[in-house]
Amino acid sequence: WDEVSVLDDKKRLIRTFQVCNVAEPGQNNWLRTHFIERRGAHRVHVRLRFSVRDCASMRTVASSCKETFTLYYHQSEADIASQDMPEWREGPWTKVDTIAADESFSQVDSTGKVVKMNVKVRSFGPLTKHGFYLAFQDSGACMSLVAVQVFFYKCPAVVKGFASFPETFAGGERTSLVESPGTCVPNAEETSTTGSSSVRLHCNGEGEWMVAIGRCTCKAGYQPVDD
Predict the structure, then answer these.
(1) Contact 216, 163 (CB under 8 A)
(2) What is the model's pTM?
């Protein structure tokens, strides 16, 4: 992989990582991020912007030419990576997915601008260690990795049904519902129609509150102000 300057689709000069060793079979080129702290997240999402050249558009292309690359991650309690560790192979690294372009381009235009950008989002978890690395493996593509955005979802602190709920991180699985206990606001008390004595909300995998259980109401002598 080489770090180079190119023009993006808005003609701004940006730095990208590119690789294009399509004429030689047996390619195994790895690019690794710095150590990324988990910050309490249980599941992480990665948004990739990249371009891939169409293998058929190149005059001499070995049968090993690819239009895909592979995304991996590796969890660690500390920033201990080196040139040799973790080893550059699946095993120490956990495969997230093989990423394919929806659109490939035949050539760079006359201004040097990279055309036909692809955007893909992938996620992985549950995460349990202090942080992680991402890695990108090229096996013979002609491509440019333009941007990597790493993010997670959380439900914001909220007052709902006269109960206060704290900020809550989304769970480790895409379909997780993380239960969050609520506290009645001042001068309110719990009332339950389910026979349960606790007030709860659930945070889904995309950072949205749902499935309320129980509620609080005003104590005698008080009435709602601004909900």
Answers:
(1) yes
(2) 0.85
